[in-house]
């Protein structure tokens, strides 16, 4: 009986989550006339025109390419610098370590709105404005602390004896770290990369402020269309659907790690 | 309190068990007498915990019935069965004080406050925690936590049975002995049926009146410690009980003689014709080294364990241990081993065979 | 774990310091600089001291935005935390349906913030949205573009839709780490469902729950994109939260001084709350380690 109650609760909740998404998908297959003139629960005049518009117009599809470029750059940078730092925090105590750790965490908590303008000026002055690397670096603000935090949790779970045995066996630090230690925390790296990807992918304020044409993310392209006159609802919905797909794919591949990553209580 | 009967019981963790090996617990009929102190002994993974959880109702058996007295409780909830259970690792409610932890099972059953108070302090004294009753359970050491679990298991007086699942694993050796003594005393005082799961034979033999030995999902023998020692019903019992365990030698049995690789060993009784793989079993305590009488033995090693010495050797390629009293010289002249005929047990396909005449 | 004292570990932390310094410290210093100066463009600055801070502290505009912000954060925490716990308790523990639930629940978390806004904009509109259409059909007067209350409800429901899963997933992970023996002992002790929750599940979830509350508090305090897309801060100023106000001030009106002073105070509030949470969390960790 209790099981049935749970199933009911979960069904209702998942419906609550999925119905708005369904509506978006539904609309992306409709013509604008159908959207504005009639109210239909599923597309009567099924069309792929909205997707065709996006996939043939460079100003649209380059948005996806740009987003993916800076998201991947950010993930790589974040993980690369976070690995040694997380190792240091998990293994050694050193002058100021606790303060440093807390200070890093506060950056995760910093409101992007506070940083938007200074970032704009900083990157303009060093000539990085409207480049992928600018967005990737800006997103390091919250992703590096996050990656350090997650990785440190995983590394603490690896017994120190493993390090010591490796050194006794004559491994150098670098060799040990790449050959022995990284495979041990592979799932941790996966989880950290997932969250870096996620937060960089969903962020809009900074990525929009720091780009104008060449590196403009898809999410920002969408906002321009919203404010433009003569709403093209169908295209907007199709663009929305296309932004959900990469996230959905990533979730599908890491679904078994999600619970584990969350289980560390560190996100 | 009541007698616990298991009828045709079997359990498999597979939804559709195919064949015997899918069963964690093979079909069995078994009766636990009311008020008995039982030890359930066996190596890891032999089904001890499964059996315990079926009795307590945490697990529903794939087949068969569980009876408390005359009442069929197979489908009854754990709470309805009114049993207490102590787990291998400490289960305490971290945010409660020690006192509240002990009172928890009583409060859930709506007992009277004055009674709870008296009973909790009685149990607290028994487990030696009366001075920290008002501390939070969080932050106590593992063995203190386990003592709370034990206390919680014993706090109810009217339970049908108290089940212990290797409860002393995390406890210090000297505390183990003390707690076991207390459990035993408690049993004498209140007469609860107690079932104590362990893989430690000393624990089992000192705690229980009756020891139940399990092997590969089966109860292979139930008996007093003496039965298990003198007449193991299965070669596993012989090997598992005793230190070192029973010597098992392949042999052919003809009447009252066993033939090993051409040598004849006299038995204490006559046996009828036996089918299957036959072996004889003899405890190291009942084997003596001689200067020519018995079977030839090659001595490999002598271990001095204090009270006596263990001689490890080989007879016709099979390892054989002999216990020699302290002070006996083990010289090169001792080349043979003799078995006391009355103490030899005969096994066919690992199960003990009773002599034709009955008796032993 | 015993840690070795080793100041050379600083070298391992160095790359992080460089990156974070570039992406956090330098911009922050710029903000501090603006907050203390006045400018008429051309990079000419005049010392303004505490003037901007005084202006901001006494500004009604800030007070109102802060009030709305606190109310908003309080409401979404009051809904999302209990709901998240409830959902976590009802999630399937293992098997096919557990995976399905995990994937579907994580889905809203990976949708770009403005698309979340777009989804709800499309969903809620009376002319084309499923929700708006049916509410109108049932005779409920709902229009989030000109009724402040409707706008608030829409923004809150959207946030619940977007983030409750995060709380639920965190709690779910906490629940998964409870050994089976605890539930068995509770059954033996005849504990009620409520007692199991109160004395077993809740204490085990306490750690992750604290993180969930912290994250939800921070993120709701910084919320910008979703309400901006749906309501644009309106109608009037009714859904203008702190970040929206700040961006209006800094980029819309280019009032750098006040915006910078605003930013710093904003950041300090967040810092203070983070510090309190961090301290509580490390203390919890220590107690558990005992």
Strand elements of chain A, count? 1
Order of helices and strands of chain C: EHEEHHHHHHHHHHH
Q: Roughly what fraction of the amino acids of chain C lie in strands?
A: under 5%
> Do you know the CATH topology of the domain at 67-249 in chain C?
MetI-like fold
Name the assembly state: heterotrimer
Shape of chain C: globular
CATH class categorisation of the largest domain in chain A: Mainly Alpha
Family (chain B): Belongs to the ABC transporter superfamily.
Protein name (chain B): ATP-binding cassette domain-containing protein
Keywords (chain B): ATP-binding, Cell membrane, Membrane, Nucleotide-binding, Transport
InterPro entries (chain B): AAA+_ATPase, ABC_transporter-like_ATP-bd, ABC_transpr_FbpC, ABC_transpr_MalK/UgpC-like, Mo/tungstate-bd_C_term_dom, P-loop_NTPase
Describe the secondary structure blueprint for this structure.
The complex is a heterotrimer of chains A (267), B (360) and C (290).
Chain A: H1 2-28, H2 32-37, H3 49-56, H4 58-91, E1 92-93, H5 97-109, H6 112-125, H7 132-156, H8 160-168, H9 173-184, H10 186-202, H11 205-209, H12 218-227, H13 233-263
Helix pairs in contact in A: 1-13, 3-4, 3-13, 4-7, 4-10, 4-12, 5-7, 7-10, 8-9, 10-13, 12-13
Chain B: E1 4-12, E2 23-32, E3 37-41, H1 48-56, E4 63-68, E5 71-72, H2 78-81, E6 84-86, H3 98-108, H4 113-126, H5 142-154, E7 161-165, H6 173-190, E8 193-198, H7 201-207, E9 210-215, E10 218-223, H8 225-230, H9 235-240, E11 247-250, E12 252-260, E13 263-271, E14 278-282, E15 287-290, E16 295-296, E17 298-304, E18 308-315, E19 318-325, E20 336-339, E21 345-348, E22 351-353
Parallel strand pairs in B: 3-8, 3-9, 6-7, 7-8
Antiparallel strand pairs in B: 1-2, 1-4, 4-5, 9-10, 11-14, 12-13, 14-21, 15-20, 16-20, 17-18, 18-19, 21-22
Chain C: E1 4-5, H1 9-36, E2 37-39, E3 45-47, H2 51-58, H3 60-90, H4 96-106, H5 113-124, H6 130-137, H7 148-176, H8 180-188, H9 193-221, H10 225-231, H11 242-252, H12 256-289
Antiparallel strand pairs in C: 2-3
Keywords (chain B): ATP-binding, Cell membrane, Membrane, Nucleotide-binding, Transport
Protein name (chain B): ATP-binding cassette domain-containing protein
Domain ABC transporter (chain B): 4-241
